[in-house]
Design a protein that fits this description.
- This is SDR family oxidoreductase.
- InterPro entries: NAD(P)-bd_dom_sf (IPR036291), SDR (IPR050259), SDR_fam (IPR002347).
- Belongs to the short-chain dehydrogenases/reductases (SDR) family.
- The protein is of the alpha/beta class.
- The chain folds into two domains: 204 residues, NAD(P)-binding Rossmann-like Domain (Rossmann fold, 3-Layer(aba) Sandwich); 36 residues, no CATH class.
- The protein contains eight helices and seven strands.
- Strand 4, helix 4 and strand 5 form a beta-alpha-beta unit.
């Protein structure tokens, strides 16, 4: 299927690895000029070279969501490198694991700034252009924890949940302008992040990594972890021309793991 977005311009946040990089590659394969950002210039440079070698168009900007000037920096980068924007992929990675009782004010505020405030502020900065041109795709990567809280990920469950109300509200405000706003929720997708979380859970439970991994896979009806490519394909579709009547939704990519409807 031709997704109808060849020639469009996309900014993908936190795309030096994992889910963000996967979505960037999927969009580039559809002819989208992607601008990826992250903290590691070495990884970003390698990723851009790989996308270009596969026939895609890509550039990078070294940037840190924790930097107070992040939003301003990305606005300038989009203007200077892309010359505008059609697709914004809000991906922030995940906060440190821990229980609800372990959350403290300083940590909560720090991650609230990087995972919520900067996502909303950056999106608002690009909305006027998207509305004027009559086309825009806002895709926010969150977590299946917004449906069913994930044990020992209290910060993630809390902060990503805040984005749910924002996304739904925004989607109704901009739909008449040809701008969609959707959320993509990964379940157990095999990334470095999942390896890190499984390692933390193994340590907390006093089990081996293999034991923790086997237990998690057993709970998934598909009986396996998802791949980044599967997840990214769903993201690319939500950014497509064909998905113009899909907005305000949350799409789970979890192999059927969620128990709720």
């Amino acid at each position: 299927m031709d997704l109808g977005i060849s020639g469009k311009r996309a900014l993908v946040l936190a795309a030096s690895r994992g889910l963000g990089l996967g979505i960037a590659k999927a969009l580039a394969a559809e002819g989208v000029h992607v601008l990826i950002c992250g903290r590691s210039e070495e990884k970003l440079k390698d990723n851009v070279e790989a996308i270009r070698a596969a026939g895609g168009k890509a550039d990078y900007e070294v940037a840190d969501l924790a930097d107070g000037h992040f939003v301003e920096q990305m606005i300038h980068a989009v203007h200077d490198i892309l010359g505008g924007i059609d697709i914004l992929v809000n991906n922030t990675g995940g906060p440190t694991p821990g229980t609800a009782e372990e959350m403290d004010g300083d940590t909560l505020d720090m991650f609230f700034q990087t995972m919520v405030v900067r996502v909303i502020t950056l999106t608002n900065a690009f909305l006027p252009l998207m509305k004027t041109q009559g086309f825009g795709r806002i895709l926010t990567v969150a977590s299946s924890g917004v449906f069913e809280p994930i044990p020992n990920l209290a910060l993630s469950n809390t902060l990503r949940g805040a984005l749910v109300g924002w996304n739904k509200t925004l989607s109704s405000e901009v739909a008449s302008y040809g701008v969609t706003a959707n959320m993509l929720l990964p379940g157990r997708i095999h990334t470095d992040r999942i390896d890190e979380l499984d390692g933390a859970n193994a340590k907390r439970q006093g089990k081996s990594l293999d034991e923790v991994r086997a237990a998690s896979v057993k709970s998934i009806p598909a009986q396996r972890l998802g791949t980044v490519e599967e997840f990214a394909a769903a993201g690319a579709f939500l950014c497509s021309a064909q998905a113009s009547y899909i907005t305000g939704t949350m799409l789970r990519v979890d192999g059927g793991a969620a128990k709720s409807n």
